[in-house]
Design goal:
The complex is a heterodimer of chains A (264) and B (706). By secondary structure, chain A is of the alpha+beta class. Chain A contains eleven helices and 14 strands. Chain B has 14 helices and 29 strands. In chain B, α10 packs parallel to α11. The termini of chain B are far apart. Classes of the chains: A alpha+beta (264), B alpha+beta (706). Chains A and B meet through α11 of A and α3 of B.
Amino acid sequence: MYNFAYHRPSSVAEAAAALAAASEGKLLAGGMTLLPTMKQRLAQPSDLIDLGAIADMKGISTTGDGVRIGAMTTHASVASSAEVKAAIPALAHLAENIGDPQVRNRGTIGGSIANNDPAADYPAAVLALDATIQTNKRTIAADDFFTGMFETALEEGEIITAVSFPKPQKAAYAKFPNPASRYALVGVFVAQTASGVRVAVTGAAPCVFRASQIEQALAGNFSPSALDGLTIDSSGLNSDIHASPEYRAHLIGVMAKRAVAAAA
Amino acid sequence: MTTGGIGMAVARRDGPAKVTGAARYVADTPLRGALHAVVVPATRPKGRIAAIDTAAAAAAPGVVHILTHANAPRLGRVSVVLAEDSLPPLQDDRVRYEGQPVALVVAESAGQAAEAARLVRVSYHEEPFATDFDAGLDRAEPVATFFGQPLDTAWGDFDAAWAAAEVRVETSLATSDRHHNPIEPMGVFASWADGALLVEASTQGVSELREALAQALGLDEARIRVRSPFLGGGFGAKGWGLPHQLLAAMATRVLGRPVRLVLSRAQSYTEHGYQPATRQTVRLAARADGTLTGLAHDVVAAGAFVGDYIEAAGWDTAPLYATPSLRVRHRRVRLDRLSPSAMRSPFGGVGIPAVEIAMDALAHALDMDPLALRLRNYAEVEPGTGRPFSARRLRECYEEGARRFGWADRPRAPRSLRDGGLLVGQGMATAILRAFRFPAAARVAIDRNGHVHVETGSHDVGQGLSTILPQIVADALGVPVDRMSLGIGDTALPRTTFTGGSSTTMSVGSAVQAAARALREKLADAGANGPEGYAGALGALSVDRLAADGAYAPEGDEAAGPALFSYGAVFAEVAVDPDLPVPRVRRVVGVYDAGRILNPVTARSQMTGGIVWGIGQALLERSETDSRLGRFLSKNLSGYLVPVNADVGEIDVAFIEGDDPHASPLGARGIGELGGIGIAAAIANAVFHATGVRVREFPIRPEHLL
């Protein structure tokens, strides 16, 4: 019950202008995190800039080497997209298992990766698939994008407009969901690409990360057995009411194997 | 004619209203110009309030009044059972637990009250606090009595038996703090008119709440009416004399306008109790053939500096097995938290699993079948006292449960059952539940149209009371249940005791039966030989309506009669994916002896609910405390896991029926909490059988099985 200015721009440029003009503006995508945060008064923006009316930011298109997904595309749209299913079925599968139906029909890919929740699913796909994040100012490589817990390379006033995923040779995502929230307690996205194997882990640490140990093990032998006997170091992994670091380390190995088995 | 009498499978009367949304809960009470109140909870576990700045809140839109310890009326001392554990709200500047109400904001709308409550600024003189149970174990103190009776039990010489035993087994079990989490948060609607107080509250004890309100507010009970219209679950949470209930009554009296106060989900973790954690040790001394020579059960329970609640986990250990020596001891560690309280299947529900896990460990140590071990030590008379049991059909429960489950086919060795890549395990445990009975009264009336009205102050917390009472009356009068109406949950109706301790069928049911039989006698005296003659009898008496009262009270010296318990044998099968390794319950068979079953539908529903409750206890439920801040960590259903349908496998419930004339005139015994006892141990024992890992903590988590 406090006041804020609500904007509903119809173009990215208008949105950027509204954001620049606001004293403490916030971009509203699906609002799956921002709105609860505002209800709890953990965020009290002066201006809310709703990106929902910007047609350019929605939709999925096939590109030369993969798919391009508009930042305001909902998880449900990605999950049911024929283009995504054809090019990267693992990505559709990931989107299909985010949260619950309400979240999937409101939440967006741009909102998810801009928020960079440590337990969100999409960051794992973006990082493992070596996607490119397009903003109103530049393009950012996935390896440079996720910088820390709830932190990204996005600058003040920068708006994600789309994410481009190159088509991998093989890919799969396996997650162990929290039974209540369906957030990833541990989620592992594995991808075999022309430039090598990429493995991204979400849920386990303060920020999504590439598991180089697993990537190396899979580099010469992309099969579950390549991960036999692999021990994941639990140092630096999250400890909370849901799981210990040791259990998360164990799950990384299990989920990685399952992802490789599903991809192979 | 089918009347829907005792033993008939009558569908739940409250079912259609619940599933269609027609059921009206306290939060649905029509507003009638009511104000809304929101509790401001303390954010520190211990200290003194340095200052409360209410200026911003008072200036917020819609705010009518703000109560703090500085301006709240002083309350009288409350001495009502269990309500005594609550801290009277806003009486001084001391903070004794996180979540303690330090202010109450009253506003024209619920949103305005909530927003203004956020604007109340409280500063504290903080004091060192203790909320870490394990860190306090070295200052655990003995607890002598429990509801006025000696709590601990001993006979024989356990130490000598332990020293001389051919086989010794010692196991420990740590249980977690658990919250009740009824789907309906507690609410109260209080209005003050013409010097009388009317309260609607989601409570399991209208009479006790009225008594507490009378004592706190210094009012005559006759000037207070308390109603409990419809409860969305209780599980023991919905007590009486709780701070928020007293606050709502206080506010309406101060302001002269109706006040509604509904707790938020988060407040449901601090404005009423919880089941406290325990640390238990069980030692079993036995001969090589499995005959017990000694049993020791040591319980340390978490408690609070506020109130005297003790989780009497060892209370029902003594009647379990024949043993020449036994020692059950309880100690408590007081913490700077709100008082714990009884939660569904308290006491034995927390402690029986510790004993039953030890029995499984003993069976394993002896390479003996766990069921055979229990039969070897079957108690034919009450151990320790030598009293006869009243109708103990536990042996039949074991036999029927084993048959339904297929226990005879179970290979004994752990990790010997597989299903594809899954490890499968089977475990069993005993359930036992003491019979609590309380005074109750009821009235049954009939009119010339043959319509029967049944009245009693008791509550339907979802357990089926409103379904079985008409059945009891139908049995006595021969009038079908669909010609009956029912009034419950109101202090204006014949008085009963709170709904708890699985006492209601025996107590309230017997009072209703007595009233119905008294009415039948009145009708017979007026010439009615059966239902066909009722209208004529009323005509002969020249009345449109004839009523009769009935009452029930437990017999004076219960210790002089036979020992009264309900029993069960529970068998569980779990499957564990060795990679994850998450234990999942695939099927449960529970066979129970609860005396005469009044309604197989509601009885089965009760036991199924209890089994699901036990799945939560064994595998999911845990309220963690942040000991740095002295508060529960996750006050929501995202951080506190409860079982959902996906967690529940196939559940097969059966009863070994038979009257227990000593338990109640109805021949029935307590049933409500029986299903929640033993099941957690059956699951834990199945997890051991599946994995070979003996987990010493509830809930059993995947981490434990790595």
